[in-house]
Structure formats: structure tokens, C-alpha cells
Design goal:
single chain, mainly alpha, 11 helices, about 0% strand, extended
């Protein structure tokens, strides 16, 4: 199976190279007549050609695809796991999901930094006021910080769920500490992250729907929509008739 994957990836890479290579090569060599036999300019354009070819998504992806199959055969079966990403390449909806995380990257990174700022504050507070509640996991600020960050998301109820407490008495300081952490970190900030991702996903979906509508209902040459073109002609489907005539003119 691994050998078949190597073979298929070679065929697919060859197909995409034959399909896109002329355009990418032409793009790199535009204006070559101005170089006036400058060997360094030619070398730069050659490197630019290689860059254009191997930064094309499909060429790069299927090159790695074949390399992963080769590694899977000769080194470890683990490398075959890379081929699971084929599902993402095949289904645009999965690409939209990934983009909903990648596109708002700056906002997510800043939110993550804000989260870590809060974690550090709560770790510092715990280190000075009740390190004994951490049962040896808060002997230093750094260790306390790692414990807060690690255990809060694994325990039910945030950091308070991990620390536990007395069942007969209420410690006001611990009560405030546990609940403020739970409200600000576990509820507010995590919901902000989810909101950023969901809003981006919704915007991407709307953009794709609009693009699909424009492709299927608007002539990209004259700008008239399907309804207008259907009414303007006696043909059964005036829009498609118009599109075919425009394509014939362009050809």
C-alpha cells in the first residue's frame, strides 16, 4: 500500500506540475529581456522559479504525501498518519473550519497571552497566601504557575475543583479565589475564544455562499444577474445562453 501511495503521489505531483508549471515559470521570467545577460539575475529567476513551483499548495502537499509514504515504508508506520490530512484537502468545509482558527490567529494569540497573564496573577496570589492548599505543587512561583495552568483545565470547577477544601467551614479568601478564577478564566475568556472562532467561521461561510451565488448567477463580464438575462432573451435559459456566447467570444 505504501508503494502505491508513493506512485500515486508521484503521478499527482506530475499532473499539478504539468498543469501549473508553465504559468508559474512564466511568472518568474517576466521581464527577462531587461536583465541583459546578467548571470546573477538569471540565477535569481531560476531560484524564484523553483520557489514558485514548490510553494504551490498541491505540489508541496503531494510531495510531502509521497515522502511520508516513503518514510512509512522504511522507518515507521507512524508517518502514514500524515495521509489522514487528505480528508482536509478533499472537503472544503474542513478547510473552512481550519481557517476559522488560522485567520483570527492574532486575536487568539492576544487572548491566550491575556489568559496567561491571569494565570500568573492567580499563581502569584496562591504562592503568597495559601501554598499549602496545593500540597507541595506550589513551592515556587514558576511551579505554582504551571500547576494552575495545568490542573485548572483538568479538574471540574477550575482550580477550585483541584484544590478541594474544607466541607465544614468556608474560607472567604479561597471562596473568592476559586470563583473569580472560574468566572474570568473558565467562563469568560474561554467563551471569548469560542466566539472569535465561531464568528470567523460564520463570516467565511457567508463569503463562500456569496462567491458561489455570484459564480452561478452573475455574468463576470457584463455584471448582469441571472434574472435580468433570462428576461432579456427569448431563449429558454437566457443566462446560460449568454454565458456560452461570452465564452465563445473570449475563446
Amino acid at each position: 500500500i505504501g508503494s502505491m501511495m508513493i506512485g500515486f503521489s508521484f503521478i499527482i505531483v506530475s499532473y499539478f506540475l504539468l498543469k501549473t508549471a508553465p504559468f508559474l515559470i512564466q511568472k518568474a521570467w517576466v521581464g527577462v529581456s531587461k536583465d541583459k545577460l546578467n548571470i546573477f539575475a538569471y540565477l535569481f529567476r531560476l531560484l524564484k522559479t523553483i520557489k514558485n513551483l514548490f510553494t504551490d499548495f498541491y505540489v508541496l502537499y503531494y510531495t510531502i504525501y509521497g515522502f511520508a509514504a516513503f518514510m512509512g515504508i522504511f522507518i515507521s508506520n507512524f508517518f502514514f498518519a500524515f495521509h489522514l490530512f487528505e480528508a482536509v484537502v478533499r472537503y472544503p468545509l474542513l478547510q473552512t473550519i481550519l481557517r476559522s482558527v488560522y485567520d483570527p490567529g492574532k486575536s487568539l494569540i492576544l487572548t491566550y497571552m491575556f489568559l496567561q497573564l491571569f494565570n500568573y496573577f492567580f499563581a502569584l496570589f496562591a504562592y503568597y497566601f495559601f501554598p499549602e492548599d496545593y500540597e507541595g505543587l506550589c513551592s515556587s512561583v514558576w511551579k505554582c504557575y504551571l500547576t494552575v495552568f495545568d490542573k485548572a483545565f483538568k479538574a471540574d470547577g477550575g482550580i477550585g475543583g483541584f484544590l478541594g477544601g474544607s466541607e465544614t467551614e468556608i474560607d472567604i479568601l479561597r471562596f473568592a479565589y476559586d470563583n473569580i478564577y472560574n468566572i474570568f478564566i473558565m467562563i469568560m475568556i474561554l467563551n471569548i475564544v469560542m466566539g472569535i472562532i465561531l464568528d470567523t467561521f460564520e463570516n467565511l461561510r457567508e463569503s463562500e455562499k456569496k462567491f458561489s451565488y455570484d459564480i452561478n448567477n452573475i455574468c463576470f463580464v457584463c455584471g448582469f444577474d441571472r434574472e435580468t438575462l433570462d428576461k432579456a432573451t427569448d431563449a429558454r435559459n437566457g443566462f446560460l445562453t449568454h454565458i456560452k456566447s461570452v465564452l465563445n467570444i473570449l475563446e
